[in-house]
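Below is one protein, fold included:
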Amino acid sequence: MKSRYKVDLKGLQAVCGMNYAKLLRLMPGREQRDSWEYSASPNGAHTITIRILERAPYTTTIAVEQQGKINKWLQDLSLGVRIYHDAEMAEVVNWAQYRQFLGRYPYPNKDMHQMDEKTQLNQFLSDWLSLCIAQGHSLEYPNFTKLGEGI
């Protein structure tokens, strides 16, 4: 008999903590600015934009978006992320038409979410932010060879 999926809460919290640190690095001057643009491709064809949607005393809600078609099957991507400053965590709160993901889903379900959909989305955000940090170039400061150099 297949065992029931159990949420790895420590692992999810660790990923959300890493996402928080990565986002802070990608959002310099966040108290005075509302958006940042980066290119994650050598020719600048694909841009990643981070936009602040809402500020509150302990949270900030942002959109992390990619523009530029990778191929004809993949559309532009947008994730809604809530940053919890007091807990130093950032988690995906919406993607496409879906909002507020459960920690665990029964499978199969009507929306065909994976059992660990919330964990997978937060890990995807982590990988995406790591790519931006490792290979991204600020469109505001295009002369820098690596993200964060000189910023």
About this structure: The chain has a mean pLDDT of 80. The helical segments are 9-26, 117-135.
